[in-house]
Amino acid sequence: MKKEAGISILLVVLCAIVAIKNPRFLGAANLENMARLIGMFGIFSIGMGLVIITGGIDLSVGSVFALLGVMLVIMLREWHWFWAVAVLAVIAGTMTLGWFHGLLITRARMQPFIVTLCGLLFYRGLARYIAHDETMGFVNENFGPLRNLATGSVFGLPMPFVLLLVTAAVMWVVLHRSVYGRYLFAVGRNEEAARYSGINSRAIIASSYILAGALAGVSGILIAFYTNSISPSTHGNFYELYGIAAAVLGGCSLRGGEGSILGIVIGTALLQVLQNLVNLLGIDSSLNFAVMGAVILIGVLADELLSARRRSRKVLVAAGGNKSAG
Amino acid sequence: MSAPLLELKGVTKRFPGVLALSDVSLTVGTGEVVALIGENGAGKSTLMKILGGVHLADTGTIHFDGRPVAIHNVAEAIALGIGFIHQELNVLDNLDVAGNIFLGREPARGGRLGLIHRQEMDRRAEPYLRRLGLQVSPRRSLRELSIAQQQMVEIAKALSQNARLIIMDEPTSCLTLAETERLLATIKDLRADGVSVIYISHRLGEVKLCADRVVVLRDGKNVGTLEGDQIRHDAMVRLMVGRDLQSFYVHPKGTKRTAYFQVRQLRTRAHPQCRISFDAAAGEILGFAGLVGAGRSEMAQAVFGVDTPLEGEIRLEGKPVVIRSPRDAMARGIYLVPEDRRNTGLVTEMTVRENVTLPGLWRHATAGLIRYASEAEVAERQCAALNVKTPSIETQALNLSGGNQQKVVLAKWLALEPRVLIFDEPTRGIDVGAKAEIYRLMRDLAERGVALLMISSDMEEVLGVSDRVIVMHEGSVAGMLERDQCSEEAIMQLAVGKIGESVSS
Predict the structure, then answer these.
(1) Highest mean pLDDT: which of A201-210, B263-272, B482-491?
(2) Tell me: the pLDDT tens digits for B2-54?
(3) Considering only CA atoms, which of B336, B346, B456 is closest in space to residue B401?
(4) Which ranges in B313-415 belong to alpha helices (H)?
(5) What value of ipTM does the predicted structure carry?
(6) Which site in A97, A111, B210, B497 is 20 to 30 Å from B486, CA atoms measured?
(7) End-to-end CA distance of chain B
(8) Contact residues, chain B, for A196 at CB < 8 Å
(9) What element of type H or E holds B459?
(10) Do B347 and A177 lie within an 8 Å CB cutoff?
(11) Alpha-carbon torsion (B238, B241, B242, B248), positive or negative
């Protein structure tokens, strides 16, 4: 909980600074747009977090967004598929890609970084080839509720944000209250020991990629309708890094075995506030990434320093405790 | 031995809330081997950390070579001439032998380029290797050496740093019997050359063989020193635990044997040319002796399904069981307490509660969601039953001592009603008091009708605990000894493959 508390404070402080400097930050339109973005980015960041908790990583998300965006346009506009069928096909597709990554990682014993890096390159190329490297769009059609899911609102809350809340609630139960969640942490901490306790480590790891694929599919559909047109060479660029940054800011360790849903959601929110801050404070937008990089670095560094201090205090206490026990 | 090489006087070290060392004194003469023994938590490691500069003593003096010294870090200790051989070796297995010996002190050439002078390094390494009887090339990668050879490389490194005192912390815990003998001979040679040794070990048999003097610590205090023929097993145990341990080993009341657990023609990946067959009765402790690499751990891993056997039949109560994964084994009540507690026995960063319930988590779940109260109740009950010393069940397992960690591993399986329990080196690195407790637990389990297989490289343990002993040699069963046939000589003869080829192979 300490990690979440730290990053929450950072989030509140940043919001306060921006709100004071530019009152437009608290304007309805700005808040609504930010919540919409947090929703879209948060859903796949949770998936990324699960993968990171098992000690893995998924670099392919951004390219998967481009590929699924292109495919979605084709399915809906060229093949005239019913919207629900297209949605199911997209999510089944991203889950299949996750399963494939999981298979290569657990069966062929390849490193997650390599597998998903190849995915990043491969799916981007595939998307561009399929789209003949041309921008494709949904134009003005609604395709059932799909457009509304990305751009509409319920009870004044943007739909993607509501979807994130639902996803986060479900995934919180899964990660922090279920047997499966405990297994994810156990496998991420020590795969061997988990196996010696009868856990099917390979299946657990592979399943995290499949689950992340499903969440990426949902996010990807929302993002596609939010941008409304997909230019295959840039759509989703760097999005995997947003996911990783959100997870790490939220307390996931790249060594595996650590992290929380709440942390990931707050991490996502922090990243979007930072983006917004660059716009609202009149910082040159070319500095966008520089600002994010600097804040993430400072945040993680501060957390490291604080936890190192906590640890050294704990070690002294533990040393004392052991002596008296033995 | 006129002037001692090392003299600690009145050393006291206080940690918040605990007195780790209280007025401890220790002298080591030139060319003297002093064994330092005591239960875990007796203050041995604190004392060594003071010599290594990790901790500073609150009060007390250290004299080395007659001069008062203050040691602030390991580099200063090494500069004084103190070398350390830790239980977990500090070698870099991606470097070669010479590279390890001269790490950070590589002979250089090429001026400011600082290129490593390979030939010079090899030339300088060779005398040390010869002196220790280590017949490997300085260019051999450490990865290709056995643990014992890697340890010799560490000793060579200490000697190359002109160490006059070498501190060895549990040096034999990962060595085979033959390697242990080799190390003890090396210690004798070092002593003859005037090098002093502080030897920390739980294995009292070795202490008896190599020590000139035994210093016993208990609860951070000196409780006694034994010299010459005072160095006896019972005397050492009495000082360490402060009482006699009459029932150190609990013997069986006599068992009726029926074939309860049968392994037939088991072929493992490690020794595909060998087939292992044996029977274990309910209620017996079947010891597995042999040299390291004899295929005992591989047998255990095959039976538990960690490493799927190539071939073979396993029967429990006469019914054949198919084991392809630990889950299959666990479904039949066949469990393994593995050799490596920290990496395979426990997820050390998780809490005691989470570790205890990990293998049987589904029993504490409704619709896939964990019931914490049920989980905590079982963890509490197991910890109480096994006398696990932990501040609470929410403590991370890594904060527990070795003996208590082993009890947590046991607790995992005892909560699941074992029928066959395999122990791989059950008491490695565990202090005497906890050892006795674990032996008692094992005997209790046997009396409740569990079949226990115990792999051990500790000869005293094999002889003291087992009802029968199977001796393995190079992947196959070299022979089986009934309790009254068991002796160190009989086991060793089978272990080195001198006789018994005809028994079973």
Answers:
(1) A201-210
(2) 578 999 999 999 877 678 899 999 999 999 999 998 876 678 888 988 998 88
(3) B346
(4) 326-331, 352-357, 372-385, 402-414
(5) 0.87
(6) B210
(7) 54
(8) 304, 306, 326, 336, 338, 344-345
(9) helix B459-465
(10) no
(11) negative
